[in-house]
Every structure is written in structure tokens, then in C-alpha cells.
Amino acid sequence: MKHGFVRVAAATPTGKVADCGHNSRQIIELIRQAQEAEVKVLVLPELCITGYTCSDLFFQDTIINESLSSLWDIAKVTKGKDVLCFIGLPLLYLGKLYNVAAAVQNGKVLGFVPKLHIPNYSEFYEARHFTPGPVDVQNIVVNGEEIPFGSRMIFQAAEMEDLQIAAEICEDVWVPQPPSGGHAEAGATVIVNLSASNEITGKDSYRRELVRNQSARLVAGYIYANAGEGESTTDLVFAGHNLIAENGIVLSESERFTNTMIYTEVDIYKLRSERRRMTTFKTGRETSYKRVVYSMPQIAGRDKLPVLPLTRRIDRAPFVPGAAADRKKRCDEIISIQALGLKKRLEHTRCESAVVGISGGLDSTLALLVTRKAYDMLGWNAKGIIAVTMPCFGTTDRTYQNAVTLVRELGATLREIRIEAAVMQHFKDISHDPSLQNVVYENSQARERTQILMDIANQTYGIVVGTGDLSELALGWATYNGDHMSNYAVNASIPKTLVRYLVADFADSASSSELKRVLLDILDTPVSPELLPPKDGEIAQKTEDLVGPYELHDFVLYYVMRFGFMPEKIYYLACLAFSDTYDEETIYRWLTVFYRRFFSQQFKRSCLPDGPKVGSVALSPRGDFRMPSDACVTSWLKNLEQCKMGEEE
């Protein structure tokens, strides 16, 4: 519950057709299991109290009366329980029969949501028995109680106002304008669907995509519970295909032909953040909805919502596709976006060259590979790429040799310009003692390199291709007007964790064994600006020792920029994702570093060169991110400190 996570479930009871007593016992057992698993929203299939396949038995008063009586028996069992249950049954009102979802919680029937679209084609002939339900909500008397009845109804948790739940039934989601569209516009963050969708070859794929896409379109959680074994097999078979999706991602899916319960957590705050960011997502336009507020007895009265142990996977590399097949496709796509952006800039400026500073590190390697790709697209000779290596005090033989080999293998023109003498002269000019290896010592080298690149670009009628990546921009790990500046920054929206995968992708498809070898060795080289003298020939200055692990910073950057999560939530997620790598103290330390640097270094991002956006997170001041350079980090650090206070308690 804390941090916006709500555990939800979809379950399929093993029923018997027209045996309400048996079916009720199955449902009660599933409710017990759900409560034990700390589920807060449980969805059961369409007409599960009677069975969907009762056919003309729905004309019998016996089954109609018994199903209603069974519903109240089930409701009694929920007394004192938090879980909100959606249960399917037939409801007789004013002489007409409706297919409804009953919302039951804490001993009460909170409302009846009717099915609006009644299928009467192919194997379906529901119109023989059921009437489309009313859209607007009215109070009706059922079993002596006044209960809301209608489609436009949202159930809202008192303890968590962003948890707003609405229902539709089976066919409702298959039509051109599902009711859930209006539900979401009225503020529903979770949609439940009680379904009895029979199984035929290939239908599961269509059903999965339908649910996934609807959750994406609505920016909502979508819980789909389907009928399964126990339904009549006279003409149809039901497979209990249950699904839980969140904003276009299937979080959990049951194995078909097994009656099971699936559960996971929906991130309500994540959905809220997405809707807030999307100016085209309009809420509050549907004013005719009735809100039914309910309270969770086991949570009510607490000062703080309980922290829920998560069952959903927290990806420790959110910028990198998980599946190998997806990763290859995504890498090709990203490289194409980068190269096309550079291609356009080279064409537009009528350049005769592209100048790249090459160090033997990951970022400059990717920039050179992208530049070669752009040249291939243009049909230009790669000799027009001027790759400049500029050894100085911190350059190691390993990175130098890798830089030289890489340029040779890619067919670019190599220029080597040693800058020690120029930097020493600069030290003399500004009266700096070279034995004092401070920020002046380091930044002088970075600015000298940038000056050389810019001047060579002028010499050769070209532009300087930037090498810095998104992670460095977030942390401000760049020398202002040094490596911070270029004419076109191809890596500006590529985080360090993704840079590694892109270079690895090039290595996998390398045109020669030597190119593959050098790319793999670059991947194996510690990340370093190489601005301090090496020790025993090895890199002495390792970036991640100074600013922290990039995999952790990229994780934080994703959730800060993509969803605007509070620091305490990001800390919680990071502790879960990196539990086998870093202890909580280490994570807390580097999160603090991230926030301090992210705020203090905005001035560098306010004057970035142009560069292509390739993913959902970017820091361009002209596009995704506008932030005052003197914004205060106090509130974020204060929130982060609460994590440590909570641990002490």
C-alpha cells in the first residue's frame, strides 16, 4: 500500500453448472486465500456464482433466487476483511435479468455493475436471457437493502484516494468504445473485467493483446478474470485465462487450462504520474459517475500505510530491454535514430568531415560507431571521419592502442595530437602548480581537447560529434565548455548502462575478428576520464569510485525523470532491485550523491548542444526537461532522510 503499490488478483473457481452452493464455497475459499496473500482487489469470472453456461436455466426462479442468497452468504464471510471482491451473478430487477458484477467488501454488497454489451452472435446468445444494463447509476432495493446499480460507478478506497476501481464485463472490452474508457476519464485507475471468454485456437493471443492495449490506452491497471474448468463443455471449453496488466505491460498471466489465482502489485502512483504527464489524457470530464467510498478495516486508523513486500519484478536496468531478442531489435533501432539524426545535421550543414575525439572508452567508441553508420547511410567515404586521439597525463597504453585500432578498423582518418606540452604551457600561463592535481589540473585537459576538436572541425569544414552520455549529463560529470560541448551530441539521451549494450551489439556483428576483439576489450575497460596519471601503467581514476555505480544512478534517473517518484520510493525500489549487489547504506549514500549533483549541475544541461532523443527519458532544455539552474534540493533530501529514520524506528 505504501509507495502506491496495491496487490490485486484474478482467480478462477472450479465450479459446477447451476450449483450455487458449491460455487459459493469455492469463491469463499478464494477470498480466504486472497486475504491471506494481502490482496486488496480480487476479481472473479462472469456469472461465477451460477456458472456462465446455465443457458435456459437462467429462466428458472430457483437459480436466480439461490444465486442472490449465495451472494449475501459470501458477503458475510468478508466481514472484517480488506479485500474488495468482484463476483459475477444474474440479477433480476423489474422483471428483467441483468448480467452483473457485484462489488463485495467488509460484509457488504457495495454495488451492482451491469454488462452493457450483450453478445448474440456465433456461439454467444446472451440476448436470449439478459438485458443490457443501465449506464447511469440508480439505487435499487435488493434483499431489503438499498444498493447502487449502474455502469458509471467507481469504488474508491478511503485510505488511498488514488485507488479508484471500475468494472466492465467480458464483451464490454471487445466493442469499439468500451465502458472502461469513460471509467478512466472519470478517474478510475484500476479496471476489472469479469469474463467468460471461451477458448478456441489462437484466441489467447488476441485476448492478451486486447487487455494489454486497453491498459495502455487507459493508463490504468487492468484485471481480467476468466471462466475455466467447471463450465459446461456441451459446445465450448473455457481455459481460465487470467491476466493482470498495467499501462501496456502484462504483469501476470495464468497458464491456460488450469483454474488458478494470479496476483501481483499495480503501481497506482506510477499510473497517476503518467496521467499527470500526458496532457492529452483528460480526467474529470465524466461528472455523472457515482463514487462508492469504502474503508479497509485492517488499515483504517493507521498513521501510515503498511509497506507491501512486492511480488512483481523490479528491473535493475530499466533502460535496457530484458529479452535478448528485444534487445537486439532495440539496439538496431537506437543506432538508426542516432545515425539518422547525425546524417541530417551533416547534410544540412554541408559538412565535409565529422570530427570525433576518440579515447578508447565506451562513449567515444559509440559516437565513432554511430558516425560511421551515418556515413554509410550517406554513401560517403569513411575517410571523411576525423578521429582524433589526444594522449595526456592519464592516458594508458591500453586505451591508446584500443583507440588507434578502432579507428583503423572502421576506416576513419586518425589524427594523434599529444597535449601535454599545451596543457603545461597553460598551467604556466595561469600560474598553476602541475603537482597540484585538482579540478584545474583535470579540466584544463578536457578544455584543451575540446578546443583542438573545434579547430580541426574548422580546418576540415566539419562539425564536432559529441561523445558525452545521458548519465554524465544527469550527474554533471562533464567539464563545462570541455567535453560538455560539441556541435551535435549523438549520445545525449543514451544512459551509460545502454551505451554498454549498444557497443556489445556492434561487437556481436563486427565485420572483422580484430574489430570484435577491440570492442570487447573496450567493454572490459573501467570507465575513466583518464585525467590523472596512471599507477603502474593501469587506470588510476575510476569514475564509479568517485560518483558511484552507473547502474544504480541510471536506475534512479529513470524513476526520477520518467515518473517523478519521491526519493523514499526510489530508495525502496533500489533496495529491492539491487539487494544482491549493494547494501542499503551504500544505496542511500549514492542516492544522496545523485540528488545533490542532479540539482547542482543543471546549469550544464541548460546549454546543451543539439542531439537526438531515442528513449522516454531525455534532459534537453529544448524538449523534455526545463528546470531552474538554481533550484533547491532540500525537499528531496529531506524525503530521502525519512528512509533512514524509518529504519531506526
Mean pLDDT: 95
Helical residue percent band:
25-40%
The helix count comes to 19
Helix and strand content put the structural class at alpha/beta
Biggest sheet, open or closed, and with what strands and sense?
7 strands, mixed
CATH architecture verdict of the largest domain: 3-Layer(aba) Sandwich
Number of strands: 20
Main sheet: which strands, in order across?
13-12-11-10-9-8-15
What's the CATH H-level superfamily name of the largest domain?
A: HUPs
CATH topology of the largest domain: Rossmann fold
Unreliable parts: none
Shape: elongated
Radius of gyration: 31 Å
CATH class of the largest domain: Alpha Beta
Count the domains: 2
Range of strand content: 15-25%
End-to-end separation in angstroms reads 19 Å
Structural commentary:
The chain has 649 residues and is an alpha/beta fold. It has 2 domains: 2-294, Nitrilase/N-carbamoyl-D-aminoacid amidohydrolase; 324-648, 3-Layer(aba) Sandwich (Rossmann fold), CATH 3.40.50.620. It has helices at 20-36, 61-77, 179-185, 203-218, 268-277, 324-348, 362-378, 397-410, 420-429, 439-459, 470-475, 496-508, 513-523, 543-547, 550-563, 567-577, 584-600, 602-605, 634-648; strands at 5-11, 41-43, 84-93, 96-105, 108-114, 138-142, 145-149, 153-157, 160-169, 190-195, 221-226, 243-246, 249-253, 261-267, 290-294, 353-357, 385-389, 413-416, 462-466, 488-489. The strands form 4 sheets. The chain has a 7-stranded mixed beta sheet with strand order 13-12-11-10-9-8-15. Strands 5-4-3-2-1-14 form a 6-stranded mixed beta sheet. Helix 7 (362-378) links the parallel strand 16 and strand 17. The longest helix is centred in the middle third of the chain and has 25 residues, at 324-348. The chain is elongated and about 100 Å long.
